[in-house]
Predict the structure of Glutamine amidotransferase domain-containing protein.
Amino acid sequence: MQFAIWVSTSKTMAKALRTYIENDRPFLGICLGLQLLFEASEENGPVSGLGLIPGVVGRFDSSNGVRVPHIGWNGLHINNESGILDDIGNRHVYFVHSYRAMPSNENQEWVSSTCNYGDKFIASVRKGNVYAVQFHPEKSGDVGLFVLNRFLKPETPFVKTQASEGKKPKLAKRVIACLDVRTNDKGDLVVTKGDQYDVREHTQENEAVVVSIDPRRVYLRSPNDVEFNAIRVTNQGPNGEEYAWYQCTVNGGREGRPIGAYELAKAVEELGAGEILLNCIDCDGQGKGFDIDLIKLICDAVSIPVIASSGAGSVEHFSEVFTKTNASAALAAGIFHRREVPLHSVKEHLVKEGIEVRI
């Protein structure tokens, strides 16, 4: 975003870029490169854009139930003569953004495709040799490579790949095969998962900040027995306890901390986290399914995407977590690496269950 601000406020750079585009020179803007073409953006602003396309870039409205940022694979509604997008149909492309431009009568001559996420927003624009896309071709697999090649070589033919078309152009659930490599207590590299809070290196945009939360269940006779948020659990505790709170841990669950997963999730969202990776110490490596109680608790508490992790042992566990919670993605490690459950089997099962995924 800082680069976009610099371009829009640098009179020399803005004038040169505006003149280049107005002369119909070949141009491809990606993500912020699309947003910069509009009159202004509300992000860190208002901030002036190049003013080539009518409209103001605004934040997604999370009040209608969508999670912000918009992260993952979504489909496009492609208009006629979209140029570099011709032939890709309803195949998914990869988005990661919190702000979007909306179609209107004033900018309709520019709009080459739209996408649905709460509302219909502009996914790409085109006028002559000038293109810009809100999604990330460089993250969109073979379809993304085709888009880039079609821009560089307009006669590039589309070659169908294993990436099938979605039944409906909507956000797909993500299935993530994870491999975490960290150092153990002796400093040796080991393959593990979820042994510490992890705020990853991030850019100026908060959607790049992923926070890992690693809680464990603490059973209670009454929800009033603790100051943290406690819920009635599906499976009772060892002594018949009907309630539990989820205590945050570090060092692979060996050390507890005086804060609940619910409270931490709401705090990191307030601080600007873009996504939560939610582990469960009790379920990790058990292969008996995700902790649905925990995942539902956190998904309902925040409006940012949540990745469900820990406990998957079968394809049915993935459909369960997607149908019973609002998780945006589901992650597993061991079952994929040991080839106990092939990744494609999970996706094929989800498709049969009517859950949108990218094949």
